[in-house]
Amino acid sequence: MSVATSGLHHVTAIAGDPQRNVDFYLRTLGLRLVKTTVNFDDPGTYHLYYGDSAGRPGSLLTFFPWREAPGGRHGNGQATTTAFSVPAASIGWWKSHLTGLGVEVGQVVSRDDEDVLTFRDPDGLAIALIAHVQGDPREPWDHGFVPPEHAVRGLHSVTLSVDREEATAGMLVDDLGLRQVGEDSNRFRFAAGAGGAGALVDVLVTPEASPGVVAVGTVHHVAWRAPDEATQVEWREELVDRGVNVTSILDRQYFRSIYFREPGGTLLEVATDEPGFAIDEPLLELGRALKLPPWLEPQREEIEAMLPRLNLPTENDVPG
């Protein structure tokens, strides 16, 4: 491939109750709600984007909250853990913070010079907080519910669970431009670009595991970065030439997207960094109001009637 990703763009998962989702990711994890919009393929469902102060690529975890959907099952063919990066000295603070809020957490484990703390969100989505001794230079969202010195810096990595690693590794290297940087028993680590937090994926080989079921509490897809539309067009053409079953380019308002599956089963996306979340509301007001793309705006009244009201804390706003 003549193009390669520089790292993760976002992870999209499926939630149940949208208010419960907002409360957890804003109040418990201290992220910022940077866009309140809808699932463009199902406008009666929210699409909620959480990230840093501006919703920069590499900081984003997003959700489709389907209130009546059944629970999913973690297993092969899925991204089974979504990890965030936190400061090296903050793992103990996070364990105390989460425990104090009634979140059941695992023991802190050390892996690849990193401390890892795992837990689940209210819908059962597997989350990890990872601290590396080298730190993470990215600026956190510093007006939320978590003190800035402990706050999440952005995505760290995702874990793909597969029954065999060869074909998945081949796509990561040959079609996305990653390189293998580590191996520990049945866990294989790959890095994009300069590597480090926000540019990592672990491939976990679990041949004994059952196939996953994508529903509430599981990851829907993992998105990788493309700098602009021209690169994405070139990327898509090369994927098609290599025999990958890839979608047409789709307008997601805040980025452009293509989708395809890696051989292990996980749905992947390549999303552009441009144009970003400030194209339809000021940075100070991100996430405050329901935003619709132009083609859905004529249906606003009908769409708003289908969506439950969300109560957002004022901490989600940037002080004027």
Automatic annotation (TrEMBL):
Residues 7-132, 154-273 form the VOC domain. Keywords: Dioxygenase, Oxidoreductase. It holds the Pfam family Glyoxalase. PANTHER family: RING-CLEAVING DIOXYGENASE MHQE-RELATED. This is Ring-cleaving dioxygenase. InterPro entries: Extradiol_RC_dioxygenase (IPR052537), Glyas_Bleomycin-R_OHBP_Dase (IPR029068), Glyas_Fos-R_dOase_dom (IPR004360), VOC_core (IPR037523). It comes from the Bacteria. One of its GO terms (molecular function) is dioxygenase activity. Gene3D superfamilies: 2,3-Dihydroxybiphenyl 1,2-Dioxygenase, domain 1 (3.10.180.10).
